[in-house]
Amino acid sequence: MGIDLKTNNRIPKQDLLYYLHDFYNIKRVLQYVARSIEIAHLTKEEKELLYMFVFENMSYKEIAEFRGTSYEHTCELIKSIIRRVGIQMLVQMK
Q1: Distance between CA atoms of 26 and 35, rounded to whole angstroms?
Q2: pTM of the model
Q3: 2-93 adopts what CATH topology?
């Protein structure tokens, strides 16, 4: 069991957050993420969107303006990408 530092709640070992709270397992989590992105077969455009959203911390609105697309389309696309990668991560952790 891990402890969520924000809420002091216990976190089940199979939960991804458990690994994030354990410094020595951060590399393992990053490997899961990288492998999941690879398995999800993201296109170059999808990888760029994920990068802007996660690493550059851009909002849906900022990304939509940058790409010249509608806000709604951008939201749905990013949510779809995150869902696909997340599913692959869950499959790998079992």
Answers
A1: 14
A2: 0.61
A3: Arc Repressor Mutant, subunit A (1.10.10)
